């Protein structure tokens, strides 16, 4: 467990330290699975939760409105990025480019998940998820 969580924390420190600067996100949950070597770390700020997941040696990032805390309401960075940029993102795995996108677009993403925009955003994200499923599984 320790190694998997350390990998997430190292990624955060190297690429996403802006998230936990003063008056930003706070750590709210974490966990791991010893049998599979996976781990997760959740941060929250106002209307938005972000979840870093280490799964099979890869780091992923998902977004969720704080008012909709269920397993169904997490949206991967590739879909959120597509909503913001209008361009299809081929992978959900985190890298330095996606971290830079997050840094540059965090205000926009928080606005999308705000109480006022949440329902519209979720509807669009679900449409993008369906389109992705059709591309991957024709």
> What Rg is obtained from the alpha carbons, in whole angstroms?
15 Å
By DSSP, the count of extended strands is 5
Total domains: 1
N-to-C CA distance:
37 Å
Helix and strand sequence? HEEEEEHHH
Average pLDDT metric: 91
Reported for the largest beta sheet, the result is: 5 strands, antiparallel
Give the low-pLDDT segments.
none
Beta-strand fraction estimate? 15-25%
Percent of residues in helices: 40-55%
Structural class given helices, strands, pairing? alpha+beta
Please state the overall shape, judged from the principal axes of the Cα atoms: globular
Q: Supply the number of helical segments.
A: 4
Question: Strand sequence of the main sheet, in spatial order?
Answer: 1-2-3-4-5
Would you mind describing this structure in some detail?
The protein is 43% helix and 25% strand. The protein has helices spanning 2-15, 77-85, 96-112, 118-136; strands at 26-33, 38-45, 48-55, 58-65, 75-76. The protein is globular and about 35 Å long. It starts with a helix and ends with a helix.
List keywords for this structure.
single chain, 138 residues, alpha+beta, five-stranded antiparallel sheet, 5 strands
């Amino acid at each position: 467990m320790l190694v998997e969580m350390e990998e997430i924390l190292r990624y955060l420190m190297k690429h996403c330290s802006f998230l936990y600067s003063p008056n930003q996100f706070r750590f709210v949950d974490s966990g791991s699975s010893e049998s599979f070597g996976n781990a997760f770390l959740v941060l929250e700020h106002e209307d938005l939760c972000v979840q870093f997941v280490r799964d099979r040696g890869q780091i992923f990032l998902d977004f969720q409105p704080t008012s909709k805390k269920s397993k169904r309401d997490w949206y991967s960075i590739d879909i959120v990025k597509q909503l913001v940029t209008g361009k299809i993102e081929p992978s959900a795995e985190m890298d330095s480019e996606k971290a830079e996108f997050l840094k540059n677009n965090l205000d926009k993403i928080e606005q999308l998940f705000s109480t006022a925009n949440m329902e519209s955003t979720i509807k669009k994200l679900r449409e993008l998820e369906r389109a992705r499923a059709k591309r991957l599984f024709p």
